[in-house]
Amino acid sequence: MNNSTSETFLASSRIIKEGLNNKISLDEEILITFSELIASEPTSHLEYTLQNYINSSGFYKITYLDMNGKGIDSTGNPANLTELPFTDTALTNGQHSNSPAYHGNSGWLEIAYQTPVMKNDTQIGALYAQRILEDFNSQSLFMFHNGQGLAYVIDSDNGEWLITCKGDRGSDTLYGFLKDGGNQESTLLALQNAISEGKSGTITIQYHKTEYLLCFLPLDTPYGSCLITTIPKSIIQHEAFDLLDILKVLLLVLLAAGILISLLVAGRQSLKARSREREYREKLFENLSTNIDFAFMLYTPATHKTELLSNNISEIIGVPVKQALKSPEIIFQYFGPEMEEMGDAFLNGRLTTQCLQECKIGDGPDEVVRWIAVHMIPADYNQYLAVFHDTTKEHHMRETLADALEQARNTNQARTLFFSSISHDIRTPMNGIIGMTNIAMSNLDHPEKVSACLQKILTASDHLLALINEILDMSRIESGKINLKEEQIELPTLISNILSFIKPEIQRKHHELMMKSSVLEHDTFIGDALNLQKVFLNLLSNAVKYTPDGGHIIFCIEELKHSQDIADIRFIVEDNGIGMSEDFMKRIFQPFERAEDSRMSKTTGTGLGMSITKGIIDSMGGHIQIESQIDKGSRFTVEIPLKLPPDSTAKPPFFGRYPVLLASTDTEALDSISQILDGTGLKTDWAASSLETSAKVAEAHQNQEDYFIIIIENRLTPLSGIETARQIRSLKGGSNPIILLSTYDEEEIKEDASSAGIDGFLTKPYFKNELLETLMNYMPTEDFPTLQPPSYVSHRLAPHLSGLRILAAEDNELNREIICELLTAKNVQVLCVENGKEALEEFEKSAAGDYQMILLDIHMPVMDGLETSRSIRSSSHPDASVIPIIAMTADVFDEDIHKSREAGMDGHLSKPIVLEELFAIINQFKEGRKGVEEKE
Fold it and tell me: Keyword tRNA processing on this protein (predicted)?
């Protein structure tokens, strides 16, 4: 048991050693990666590059030296080979290596990694990274068994502490610490010799009058160091109690066997006495086996006879007792081939040492699978003892724990990769914000430069806020707290916004975005616009991100069916990008998952986008389907049911039997448009090419049956729609209104189209209401039913706030300054206070009408915003019930807004404050609560 305890603790210590080695190996891989990257960097960028490496890796210092031994470090100071505090191997010998621990400029113990820098198979310099040893000190690695087990790293030569998990140990060396604990000199000397000789093992020590087990393992890095782990001996020995219970039972069995042997030696007793004694032993053995979960068999190989066999053998293994007594080999046959060798040695007297093996029985289709532990022990007098124990529960428990451990490891690894990635993604915009702020501060006399810097700061801030929102969204979805709003969704506006977001990246990568859709019956729905936009943005941005330059992306929208108040909308995003493996498609919706693919090594991402997308779609009652092949692309199909507004079934107008020419290669879209036009009385004709279009226009004019309107797709062949329009304008009878069907790039072609004689535009996806509205502009009479005009025109609020008096409470000084500056710039009189108590006191002492609005931060000391709002509403002030109170907070979820409403607040401004939203809500409430409610 002592040997097993030592081996168990030694194995646990090796796991800690492996964890430390993994951290060091990761540092080495990072430095090698840096050396490969820095070989391609211009010399003028070295300082900036080294500083970026520091920010992304956590090293204390990184130094680059050229082949002359001269260079620069990450602090911008010049560096020289002779000034290195450790022995060089990378520059002089071209070898990777790690240094022993040394006292560096940081004031801490450090180690240095070094690697040569190669360019075109030629060494051009060397890279050195210095790491503070305490960086490796984490409780998850250096503490175990709920803090009872501790780990340290010492110098193998003198025992000095290199890494300690619990601060000062009271002595500078391990041996001094052990001596103070009352350990003998001989123990210390034996331990010191073993460590200095690079051995590994365990030893018992004394600490606070308690026996501890100390394990020592030599480490490769830091060079010349050793891992020390300690744990109270009683803790680890507790794990052997189950084995001790078995040994107790075995001792009882051996005792019974000893009694049996003693009785056999006393052969002078009568046969009746021996028989009586045998009956007694068998009865005792039967009682013993009946009351425990073990079955025993005592066997004499010389006579091939089973001396004793527990009656519960049939319950544990399933072998009838009488059959097992007659043919003991049948017991081992139940365990299959894996027990064949051990069983043969047991039955034929070749067993020389104790054996333990766990075997599975019950492989049949109608059998219950069980696990049995078999202990075989050579006893005295050439007899063998076999102990059988059902370990099915323990086996399943171990499997469950192993699965849980593996899942925890995978989750931790995924989270580690996620935090590594998100750390980089967050630092990038933060670096831009700090850098542009410094540049602006240095150019205060150059307004153009300051303005450009501020614009870049806003862009970086938006990116940083998007990252934070993505993490918060995932947290909400994982906790099941996602709440969907019911608001009006203008689908054309939504799609236009999405395409404007991804358009710059599409143009940068020279992608071709193809919009496919028939004419949609409805353009307005009821649902959560923001979450729907997130779904589309995630899918489209992924398609752009993972499609190589010059690729094709298809965005298709279809209205499948609808009832009186529900429409099922299908969205398809398809690309010819890098595709996904079948294995990754099974894991794509799990949080923090990213495919391990060299083709996307430079592609940033958190691994949360698809998990968020799936969570939103599920919450909306929809579903998503994925089809993908490696190097061929991916196809995402989303179907979501959306509510229709009450007035969504307006009857179309009747235009009359005017002829209309439709020219396009997209027969599906033309068929859909034709059906809508037929319903308005218009007579449609089709053309499939530019040549056919021009010919039909000329023929119609010749027959004095000119088309009333010509609708042309820009992707017409062999001439484009614009060139076809230009050709039509040159023909006799080519004065008809021409409407161009285009994709999302209307603005880019608008000038060229206008010069070619195009009168109007329709962009994909096509909506019925928009189509009819466009045609109505060219009708000869105005006696048609008025269609509901599109409501998806964006506009900015023009605030007229001069003369307003506002009371604002904000505990953060910087935020307080920002809100005051923004409002003062619009001639608003603002009184800013630091907390809710001051705001309440100022309001209560003011006269009626002194303030037209109150802005309250939610989280403030002394009195928070919610309590302040409730106190204002319950006060005796004349304006207590009518003055608008607006919340300013980073709490942006539905339940947060509900809490502020319950506290008497009228509006909710989310931080960071957006200028347009601030002025919009002030405009909305500047006339007071009652006026606003009447307007609504």
Answer: no
Measured on CA atoms in the order 733, 735, 737, 743, is the torsion positive or negative?
A: positive
Name the CATH topology of 487-643.
Answer: Heat Shock Protein 90 (3.30.565)
State the number of CA atoms in the 13 A half-sphere of 324 facing the CB.
Answer: 25
Dmax of the chain from CA atoms? 139
Do the beta carbons of residue 86 and residue 99 sit within 8 Å?
yes
Task: Return the DSSP state at 187.
Answer: H
Q: Give domain limits for the chain.
A: 39-135, 138-237, 266-395, 487-643, 659-776, 805-935
What's 218's DSSP letter? E
Query: What global pTM score does this model have?
Result: 0.40
User: Is 138-237 in CATH node 3.20.20.100?
Assistant: no
The rounded distance, in Å, linking the Cα atoms of 123 and 759 is 66
| CA 16 – CA 229 distance, rounded (Å) | 9
Q: Show contacts of 605-609: CB within 8 Å, 24+ apart.
A: 605/421, 605/545, 606/418, 606/421, 606/422, 606/425, 606/467, 606/470, 606/471, 607/414, 607/417, 607/418, 607/421, 608/418, 608/470, 608/471, 608/473, 608/474, 609/470, 609/538, 609/541, 609/542
Q: State which fold the 39-135 domain adopts.
A: Beta-Lactamase (3.30.450)
Amino acid in the structure at residue 887: A
868-915 pLDDT tens trace: 999 999 999 999 999 999 998 877 666 778 888 899 999 888 777 777
Report yes or no: 845 and 875 within 8 Å, Cβ to Cβ: no
- pLDDT per position as a tens digit, 518-555: 667 777 788 888 788 888 888 888 888 889 998 999 88
Peptide bond into 884 cis (omega under 30): no
Cis peptide before 591 (omega within 30 of 0): no
pLDDT for the residue 875: 94
Residues 591-639 have pLDDT tens digits of 666 555 545 544 555 556 777 788 888 888 899 999 988 889 999 999 9
> Considering the domain 266-395 in this protein, what is its CATH number?
3.30.450.20
Class of domain 659-776: alpha beta
**Is 266-395's fold the same as 805-935's?**
no
**Lowest pLDDT segment from 291-305, 335-349, 465-479, 662-676:** 465-479
